[in-house]
Structure formats: structure tokens, C-alpha cells
Amino acid sequence: MSAQEPRSAEEPAGAAPVRRRVGLMTFAWLWVGLPFAYGLAELVRTVTRLFVG
Predict the structure, then answer these.
(1) Which listed site, 9, 33, 38, 51, has its alpha carbon 20 to 30 Å from 1?
(2) Which superkingdom is the protein from (predicted)?
């Protein structure tokens, strides 16, 4: 008989192990986050210009 690997507390008993894709997740967050941050910065700049001067 082969011993099964112990499962972590947050992983359900019937769940298959999930392969970690750190690089892909980082790329995806940057792909969405950078344009969002740029748009937010432009919004703040425009609103500031509209209400201040």
C-alpha cells in the first residue's frame, strides 16, 4: 500500500491538488492592475484640476 500525502486544513478532502502558477498570477494581476492604477491616477489628476483650478 502507498501512503497518501497529508492534506492541508483548508483543502477539502475530495479536492485535487492545485498546481501553483505564481508567474501567471503575477502577470495577470499586473495586466489588470497597472492600467487600473494609471486610470485612477488620471482620474484624480482630472478631478483635482476640475475642482481646484
Answers:
(1) 9
(2) Bacteria
Quick check: 35 and 29 in contact, CB under 8 A?
Answer: no
pTM for the model stands at: 0.58
Summarised one tens digit per residue, pLDDT across range 7-31 is: 556 666 666 666 789 999 999 999 9
In whole angstroms, what separates CA 28 from the centre of its chain?
Answer: 7
Rounded distance, CA 51 to CA 45, Å? 10
d(Cα 44, Cα 38) in Å, to the nearest integer?
A: 10
32: helix, strand or coil: helix
Closest CA to 44 of 19, 29, 36, 18: 36
